[in-house]
Design a protein that fits this description.
This protein is an alpha/beta fold. Helix 2 crosses helix 4, helix 3 crosses helix 4 and helix 6 runs parallel beside helix 8. The radius of gyration is 19 Å and the shape is globular. The mean pLDDT is 89.
């Protein structure tokens, strides 16, 4: 009986949030261990279906770097990175599109559908969803001290999101699952960081929330303690102190872009925790870092 009462209390705690978020759009960046471990993959799909059934409209943007690396190695091609970004030639972009738009995207769609959801897989090229431009990366030359342009190949950044295809899909009750691939000015395929795509999509949709699943507890302070809430001023301070750096930087930047674009709240949470989404959305305390205006 005690266990049953505890379950009832959990549902009771969630009720105000269910009421508050009914009909709202949540953009979820899906990546890290939650995309790799079979049990976590299944739990994620279940949670997405649950959100959809109670009236929340999830939009999923997924990554897939580790699988891209694995397939490249099997094909005898060595992955190359500069400043943490993949150098993407024509052969590599074909692999990226095959893995992101094919293998990974369709697996996520199939998992969601297997739990009673209705998911549709897209890439940013579908319906001109993501208009992109080639990303320009600069560094200072060690010899001259002058700024030099690094050519990453077919790597892009979001120029414009056209959300009409997402809105159309949502209207009919489907769940969009989006691979972060866009079309450039010359109609070339461009590989784009999934965090940035998620932030841009959330802003274009004026989503209620942007949630990023990661392999960390959230954003940690200088004492390695979780920071539960951050604003723009505090973020600037942490970046200047190099406390926010590396792979966390694009995630924070994506959150800031989303908030600037009208998203009410953004969250960086630990996707290694089963039902991380539900714990963050439907409990008062939450589990990760919330970034607000």
């Amino acid at each position: 009986m005690k266990t049953l009462i505890e379950k009832a209390n959990v549902l009771n705690e969630a009720l105000p949030y269910i009421r508050k978020f009914y009909g709202k759009t949540f953009v979820i960046k899906y990546g890290g261990a939650a995309m790799v471990e079979e049990k976590l993959k299944d739990i994620f799909a279940q949670d997405i279906v649950l959100l959809n059934f109670i009236g929340i409209k999830p939009v999923i943007i997924h990554g897939g770097g580790p699988m891209i690396n694995e397939i490249m190695k099997k094909m005898g091609k060595k992955p190359t990175f500069i400043h943490g970004q993949r150098v993407t030639d024509k052969e590599t972009i074909d692999i990226v599109e095959m893995v992101l738009g094919g293998l990974i995207n369709k697996e996520i769609v199939a998992l969601i559908n297997s739990h009673g959801g209705r998911a549709i897989g897209l890439s940013g090229k579908d319906g001109s969803l993501i208009n992109a431009k080639k990303k320009v990366v600069k560094k200072l030359s060690a010899d001259t001290g002058a700024s030099e342009i690094i050519d990453l190949g077919l790597v892009g950044e979001v120029e414009k999101i056209n959300p009409s295809i997402i809105l159309s899909i949502q209207k009919d009750g489907f769940i969009p699952v989006i691979a972060p691939i866009g079309a450039g000015h010359k109609n070339e395929t461009l590989n784009i960081n999934a965090d940035y795509v998620a932030g841009a999509v959330a802003a274009a949709l004026k989503a209620e929330k942007l949630i990023l699943l990661t392999d960390t507890k959230g954003i940690m302070d200088e004492n390695k303690k979780l920071i539960s809430t951050l604003n723009k001023t505090k973020i600037k301070s942490l970046v200047s102190k190099n406390i926010i750096s590396g792979g966390m930087l694009p995630k924070v930047q994506a959150c800031q872009k989303a908030i600037t674009g009208g998203v009410k709240k953004t969250h960086i949470i630990d996707g290694r925790i089963p039902h991380a989404l539900l714990l963050e959305i439907f409990t008062q305390k939450g589990i990760g870092t919330e970034i607000v205006k």
